[in-house]
């Protein structure tokens, strides 16, 4: 039963990932739905607003509500009426089985095969949905990443336009901006160069993972300007290296 549960969660997480969610968010939401823990996060609202993701989550909740009860009952019955030695043997077998399952389900080869199968299933079931492997398309496995950066008052990013920031010279693209207004939160997609970055904004950025991390910590002032200049030079060297490898 544990094996079946792990398989269902893995398939559900991969299916959610194939609809555009990041691997981490997809895994968390699939496990949350199947286990019935019901975590309420901004990602949850984002998931259920999508018809295909909502259907996947509904199936996971249904399977989980029946599977968890059966699994617990089976586990308890396994140890009832057993001697101490037999119970110890069962625990050892269970531990080794879980270890084997962990090694199997962390295999990249199995993950690729599962993604291929799920992509075909989603394309046949939901022909209107364009299914992409976003991790592959965005080069997530090659050092690039998508990150959300909260702009604080003392951030180097605050109160400047995108044109003034010149983040593209660091190899960073701003895909969108979440901004709180008097009427709630708005999303600015594909912002232009004259878009002013305000304290409290959340930038959705794409670029090298280490550069994004440094940018999120950069403070305003002369030190921040020097870090920007250094990042620009490093981006130029990285671009030349990537062109040589191409």
Structure description:
With 246 residues, the chain is an alpha+beta fold. It folds into two domains: 2-125, no CATH class; 137-245, Alpha-Beta Plaits (2-Layer Sandwich), CATH 3.30.70. The protein contains ten helices and six strands; from the N terminus they run H-H-H-H-H-H-H-E-E-H-E-E-E-E-H-H. It has a four-stranded antiparallel β-sheet. Helix 1 packs antiparallel against helix 4 (51-79) and helix 1 (2-18) crosses helix 6 (108-125). The longest helix is centred in the first third of the chain and has 29 residues, at 51-79. It is elongated, with a radius of gyration of 23 Å. The mean pLDDT is 79.
What is the gist of this entry?
This protein is an alpha+beta fold and 246 residues long. The chain has helices at 2-18, 23-35, 42-48, 51-79, 84-105, 108-125, 134-137, 162-165, 209-217, 222-245, and strands spanning 144-150, 160-161, 173-181, 184-189, 196-197, 202-208.
Low-confidence stretches: none
Class by helix and strand content? Answer: alpha+beta
Radius of gyration (CA) equals: 23 Å
Calculate the mean pLDDT score and round it.
79
The ordered string of helix (H) and strand (E) elements is HHHHHHHEEHEEEEHH
Strand content: 5-15%
Helix content: 55-70%
Assembly classification: single chain
Going across the biggest sheet, name each strand in turn.
1-6-3-4
Determine the N-to-C terminus distance: 47 Å
What is the number of independent domains? 2
Tally of DSSP helical segments: 10
The count of DSSP E runs of length 2 or more, i.e. the number of strands, is 6
Shape: elongated
Describe the largest sheet: 4 strands, antiparallel
């Amino acid at each position: 039963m544990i094996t079946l549960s792990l398989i269902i969660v893995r398939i559900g997480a991969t299916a959610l990932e194939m609809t555009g969610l990041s691997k981490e968010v997809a895994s968390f939401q699939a496990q949350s739905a199947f286990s019935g823990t019901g975590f309420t996060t901004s990602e949850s609202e984002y998931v259920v607003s999508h018809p295909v993701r909502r259907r996947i989550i509904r199936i996971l909740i249904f399977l989980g509500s029946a599977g968890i009860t059966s699994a617990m009952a089976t586990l308890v019955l396994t140890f009832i009426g057993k001697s101490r030695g037999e119970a110890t043997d069962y625990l050892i077998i269970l531990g080794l089985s879980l270890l084997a399952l962990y090694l199997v389900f962390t295999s990249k080869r199995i993950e690729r095969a599962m993604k291929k199968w799920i992509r075909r299933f989603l394309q046949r079931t939901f022909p209107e949905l364009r299914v992409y492997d976003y991790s592959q398309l965005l080069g997530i496995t090659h050092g690039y990443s998508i990150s959300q950066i909260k702009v604080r008052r003392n951030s180097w990013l605050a109160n400047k336009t995108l044109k003034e920031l010149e983040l593209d010279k660091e190899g960073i693209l701003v895909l969108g901006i979440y901004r709180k207004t008097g009427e709630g939160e708005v999303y600015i997609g594909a912002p232009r160069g004259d878009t002013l970055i305000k304290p409290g904004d959340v930038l959705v950025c794409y670029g090298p993972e280490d550069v994004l991390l440094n940018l999120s910590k950069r403070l305003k002032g002369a030190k921040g300007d020097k870090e920007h200049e250094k990042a620009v030079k490093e981006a130029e060297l990285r671009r030349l290296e990537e062109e040589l490898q191409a």
